[in-house]
User: Fold this.
Amino acid sequence: METVEEYNHVRKQLMGLDKSVLVDALLQLAQESNSASLLVNGLIAAKEERSLLFRSYIERVIHQEEILTGEQILVILSRALDLLDPLNTDPKIALQLLETFYFADSWAFESTTELDFEFDCLFSKRAYNLFCRFAQQCGDKKYVQQTVDRLLSADGYGVRTNLNQLTLS
Assistant:
């Protein structure tokens, strides 16, 4: 799907299909693709399970039992961020999770040089935007500032620098 019109057309067609057909197709994709499997796990995880799942994804990257490729790391980290819902996640817990996420940056950047742009976008844009949303929602501004300070004190890849721009009101 290369255009918005094509996307909208396919979406409309899929919306007309029976739910069981879509579920079976999604499960088939999950069996064929690690990315789809992680997506399905995130979709079916209960609210209270999402933090544990997030941590397990980060642990998988940081404490690799098998050597992961850069592409695998990118998928795992992207799916981890998918688990953080600003409407349904406690802001302080989300900031703790994002802190662990940022500490996976060295694993990401040292896994390959071919995905530096993608990793930079993941950390500097996507994770940063989530961090800002949760920081604004968090009632403990001192905790937010302490978290930012910890993250900035070890920014070897320059993907946390924009946290300096965070304004707490």
